[in-house]
Design brief:
- The chain is mostly helical.
- The chain is built from six helices and two strands.
- It has a two-stranded antiparallel sheet.
Length: about 100
């Protein structure tokens, strides 16, 4: 998961707070991370994901992280702000009429 965490941390950008709230972090947690890393958004994401992994233990999987990103409607972007990864809904949701299938 470490390589995936680095990739996400480097690409998530300003949406890191959305992810934090989706992962059930409180506003005080978000503010503490922001104060600890005032100049580097990638470090904020890494700190967030480290705290999440520590809190969740074995439940902190790449799959659950992707679910949180998808639910928060966060798209991963490259250095040029181009979308590099859109996390699709799971197959069970694709057959749901609200998705037009």
């Amino acid at each position: 998961m470490d390589g995936e965490v680095r990739r996400i941390a480097d690409t998530i950008g300003k949406d890191w707070k959305l992810l934090a709230f989706q992962l059930d972090f409180q506003r005080a947690d978000v503010e503490a991370i922001e104060c600890a890393y005032p100049h580097n958004p990638s470090d904020r994401v890494r700190a967030l994901l480290d705290a999440w992994r520590q809190r969740e233990g074995s439940a902190a999987t790449v799959g659950s992280l992707h679910d949180a990103l998808r639910t928060a409607n966060i798209q991963l972007r490259n250095a040029h702000h181009e979308v590099i990864c859109v996390i699709p809904p799971p197959p069970s949701e694709l057959s749901n009429p609200k998705f037009g299938a």
